[in-house]
Every structure is written in C-alpha cells, then in structure tokens.
Design goal:
mainly alpha
Length: about 475
C-alpha cells in the first residue's frame, strides 16, 4: 500500500527512490502488522473473559450448591443474573466507549470483572455470589460491544474480518477453558483464574494505541496521527488513509447529536435493520438453549450421561472457529453466513428428528446417534459463521457518530435474545422436543433469506466505503 501511495504522490521522483521504498515497505508492513496483532491480542483478552464468565456456572453448579447450601432457585438466580448485568452493560457500552474511548471502556470493564470475580471468590452466601455475577455480567456486556468495534477500527481492510473473528474464537476458548479447568479445580480457584485475562488487559492497554477513528472524532489530531503511524508502521505514508478518515469524521461531526429515535431515520435505517436482524436470527436459531443445556439434551435423547457429548461440544468449537477466521476475508461475510445458517438448520433438523423418533418409539438405536450428530453439526456450523459474522458486521456498518447508540441497541438485542432463548428452552422442550428444534430450524432457514436479501457484503472495503454505500 505504501509503495502505491509513494508512486502517486511522488510520481516525479527517480527510480532509485522507488526501489528504496520497496525495501522499506516490508519493514513497515511487518511493524504495522505487529502492532495491529498486539492490539488485537490485548482486546480479545476481553472476549476470553466473556467466555470464561458465561462458562463458569456449568462445571461449578453442584460444588457451589453443596458448599453454600443453595437451593435450585438460588443457583438459577446466580446463573442467570449475568444476563441482566450484560444487558445493562450493553445499554451503556456505546456511550462509554464514545466518552472515555475504546481503551477506557475496556479498562473499566476489566475493573468490573475483577470486582465480580473477587466477590464470587470470597462469597459465603448467595448475595455475594449474585453481586459478583452481576458485576462480571456488566463487564462482559461492555466487552461484547467494544472489542469488535476496536478491532474493526484499527485493522487494515484486508485483515479486518479475520482479526474481528478472533473475538468469537476467544469467547469459545474462554468458555471451553472454564468447562475443562472447572472439572479439576474448586469453584473458588476457578473464580481466581478469571482474573488473569483482566490483568492482561490492564497491563496490555499501556502498550497499544487508542482507536485512531475515535481520536479523530474527539479532535485529538496529533494523537490520531501518532496512533495511525504506530498501527501502519513508523515510516508508512498514512496521508491518504488519514485524509479519508478525517473527511468522514468532518462530515459526521456536522450532524446533530444522535438519539435512539434518530436511528429510524431513512439514512440510518438499513444498517440498523442489518445489525438488529443479524442478532435476532443468531439468537433465535437456538444457540443459547442448545449450548446451555447440551448435557440435558443428550440425556433426554437417551444417553445415560451427557458428559462425553458436552466435552466434544466444547472441544469442537475451537478449531472450527479458527477455520471461520481464515475464511472470513477469503470467502466474504455473506457466503460464509449463508452456508453456516444452512448447517445450523441441518443440525436442528437432525436433532429434532432424533426426538421425533424417540416420541414415536421408532429406530431406538439411531436416536442417540442422531442427537449427538445434530448438536455437533449445529455447533460446528454456528462456530464457522453464525457466531462470528454478526459481530464483525456490527462493528463495520455504523458511522462513528451513531456507533455508540446503534451498537448499544444491537448488543442489547443480542443479550435480550440470549436471555429469552435460555429462559424458554426447558419449557419448550417440555412442550415438544421435536417442535422446539423445528422452530429453531425455521429461524436458521430464514437467516439465509435475510442475508440474501438485505445484508451487504463488507469484505475488502474500508469502513468509510461500507458506511457510505449503506447510507446511499
């Protein structure tokens, strides 16, 4: 990129200078990639924290109930209050990230998570458990917005999709790690392990730059240029990119302050529909019902224990999510999401068929195999596209002056959907197991239609190009 820019700007210079630029370009590119990767690694520690918080309650349920003498309802409150905290975190996340910066929001989120984990560790009764769980929920509600946004704003356009997918990968890694480690250590020790990613964030934030786009938005021009140089290489020509970002910011700053009601303005409605729609279809495809209660699902399908199936469920997510990260900038967002939705639909059909056969007392030997196959197909397909793509697209489609309000709305919709699906899953399974998975399959199929008709392709475009095309 730097070579082409030098050729455009310095077209009258002699060839020896161009050869020198060629020599420098490799070093500049390596330097910029290194800082972008470091910044991404620090940010996705928040995603790992997200996964750790969500996965904590599963392996610790029996031990916490026994040690603190909790009833089922008390532990259920402990398990579910994280979503309440996350909803509040989601509502405030956009405004916080706009007022105190992307790094400031991540720092604040880490402090809330540390407070929450310490409260859980020292808890001697249900109240402290709930307060700690609520605090970690509030923290991950902020992380769920600010991490993908920060990555999208610092990454070069050719790497943005793959790097943003690391958000989902680290969520999966965090949840899987919590489940596996929680099976061999005490619940208090597992709570202490939750401090590790928070401490890494607090230390790492000292070594990475703030989002250049946010710095430009708040008028800190020198810091904006310095941050862009650190991300693109010390000797890189950032003039073109800086001018594009600044021009976009200047246009947006002339706009009046955005409120929730303004999101329904015709010039904003399409990205809002895309962002909200993707989160609705992601959640109503059943991921939190299937994920939270996978063990019970395997038992209901005829297994004596769901442990082996659940471990397989946890392990398979990581390599599949890595594949999705690789494909994100190669295949594009739309094809990946459509193929993924077709896979989750197939998984739901297979799992629903297993329950139908069980209810009709047909092919009893095939029922457990179909159930496990269906769930594993579902989670594999979800991990490759339906899980990461909505978060990547959410971070790309909103202009920076509405990103706080619109992003908060989108994340809130995601957490509301997560709560609704996890809350209703057991009731729906009691009504009809086959019917439950048929409904989820229908939503997965509708996702394909939604993506084909409404969602834009954002691969290979700058954020400014994406937002200009949507607003037009």
């Amino acid at each position: 990129m730097a070579i082409d820019q030098h050729q455009d700007v310095e077209h009258g210079l002699e060839k020896p200078f161009i050869h020198k630029a060629n020599c420098l370009d490799s070093d500049q590119q390596n330097g910029s990639i290194s800082m972008v990767l470091l910044s991404t690694c620090v940010a996705v520690c928040g995603s790992f924290q997200f996964g750790s918080c969500v996965g904590y309650s599963s392996p610790t349920q029996s031990a916490i109930r026994q040690d603190l003498n909790l009833s089922i309802s008390e532990f259920s409150m402990f398990g579910s209050i994280i979503t309440i905290g996350a909803m509040i975190g989601a509502v405030t996340s956009g405004r916080l990230a706009d007022y105190i910066g992307r790094k400031g929001a991540m720092r604040m989120s880490a402090v809330f998570c540390i407070t929450g984990w310490l409260a859980v560790y020292f808890a001697m009764e249900a109240l402290f458990l709930d307060v700690g769980r609520f605090c970690t929920g509030y923290g991950i509600g902020i992380f769920s917005y600010v991490v993908p946004v920060f990555i999208a704003e610092i990454a070069p356009k050719n790497l943005r999709g793959g790097l943003a997918t690391l958000n989902q990968l680290m969520i999966v890694c965090g949840a899987s790690t919590a489940y596996i480690v929680g099976s061999v250590v005490t619940w208090r020790t597992l709570a202490l392990t939750g401090l590790i990613p928070c401490l890494l964030i607090l230390v790492g934030l000292f070594f990475i730059p703030e989002s250049p786009r946010w710095l430009a938005k708040v008028g800190r021009k020198k810091e904006f240029e310095s941050a862009l140089h650190r991300l693109r290489g010390k000797n890189a020509d950032i003039m073109q990119e800086a001018n594009e970002i600044q021009a976009s910011i200047d246009v947006l700053l002339d706009q009046p302050k955005v409120r929730i009601a303004d999101l329904f303005d015709p010039k904003y409605i399409r990205p809002v529909i895309v962002g909200v729609g993707l989160m609705v279809f992601q959640q109503f495809g059943g991921i939190n019902g299937i994920g939270f209660y996978s063990s019970e699902t395997f038992v209901a399908a005829g297994f004596s224990s769901g442990k082996a199936g659940t471990i397989a469920y946890a392990i398979i997510q990581v390599p599949i999510t890595i594949v999705g990260a690789v494909l994100m900038d190669k295949s594009g967002r739309r094809p990946l999401l459509m193929i993924s939705s077709a896979g989750t639909c197939l998984g739901c059909i297979l799992t629903g068929a297993s329950f139908f056969l069980k209810e009709q007392d047909l092919l009893a030997g095939c029922v457990p195999f179909l159930a496990v196959s269906g769930v594993l197909v579902y989670i594999s397909a979800f991990s490759i596209g339906t899980g990461p793509v909505p978060w990547v697209v959410m971070s790309e489609i909103f202009p920076i002056h509405i990103k706080g309000v619109a992003g908060s709305l989108v994340v809130l919709v995601n957490w509301l959907g997560a709560w609704l699906i996890s809350f209703t899953f057991n009731y729906m399974m009691a009504w009809s197991s086959a019917g439950t998975f048929s409904i989820y399959a229908a939503f997965c199929a509708l996702t394909i239609v939604f993506v084909a008709k409404i969602m834009p392709e954002t691969k290979g475009k700058t954020l400014e190009e994406i937002q200009a095309s949507l607003s037009s």
